[in-house]
Amino acid sequence: DSDPLVTATRNVGIRSVRRSISGPGFRPPLQARSRKSLQKVLAAAEDVLAADGFDEFTMTAVAERAGVSVGAIYRRFDGREQLLAAVKDRLLSQLEEDLAGRLRTAAPSLEGVVSVFAAAIGDAFAAGGQVWPDLLRSRGKSAMEERGRQALESVRQLFEQAVRKYHGDVRRPDPAAALAAVERMMTGALIHRAAMESSSGDTTTMQTYARQLSDMAIAYLLTPDRR
Q: Is residue 67 left, alpha or beta, with left meaning phi > 0 and alpha meaning psi from -120 to 50?
């Protein structure tokens, strides 16, 4: 297909992300039944992480929640960190896929694309709830960090492709630079909010926060440089 959003997603994210959990020790499922079982385990892992937090996340707890043996999980993953990386991969893949789909149906305007971009990321973080803070704040896990970098690049390319046709509507002296700054601002702010969700004390919903960010971004893009 020729849809640039589809191409960007394919090239950067959705087909390549599995590299982050496919290192030594990970046994990818080959049959439909095994893939279904893996998704059940990953969904259970998300539930355990959301309910009990990062420190209490164990293979035994996941096995109990999924209704499988601990040995069945160890046949797929070497250990806890690889399973956590798979959870992060699953959540980020869902974010990328949803973002690509929603950008394809955004209102055909600069405002439409910017608003949908912020809303899609905000909705993904809201849906993940308490799973995100621990995953986003984790450090020293090379596979998880690499997957995060892949997602950031995928998100950047999707935004870039979606707004390319609206460069002429931007009133800043360098539209490309202004749009790049807006993408970094919105993405970075939403990631920070998701990472701090459990301790920030801010009662503003993620969706409201996303709307505030997109409103600020649109106002900046449509305001001439004062210098």
A: left
- Contact call for residues 94 and 17 (beta carbons, < 8 A): no
Both structure tokens of 226: 């004062």
Buried b (16+ CB within 10 A) or exposed e, 58-76: ebebbbebbebeeeebeeb
Q: How many CA atoms lie within 13 A of 75 on its CB side?
A: 11
Which tokens go with 127?
A: 């849906």
> Which has the closest alpha carbon to 148: 12, 8, 2?
12
Other CB atoms closer than 10 Å to residue 166's CB: what's the count? 18
- Rounded Cα–Cα distance for residues 182 and 38 (Å): 37
Backbone angles phi, psi at 155, to 5 degrees: -60, -45
Are the C-beta atoms of residues 111 and 156 closer than 8 Å to each other? no
H-helix or E-strand spanning residue 21:
none
| Dihedral class, residue 53 (left if φ above 0, else alpha if ψ from -120 to 50, else beta) | left
Q: Is residue 207 within 8 Å of residue 122, measured between CB atoms? A: yes
Give pLDDT < 50 ranges for the chain: 1-2, 9-20, 22-25, 30
| Burial of 185: CB neighbours in 10 Å, binned 0-12, 13-18, 19+ | middle
For the entire predicted model, the pTM comes to 0.81
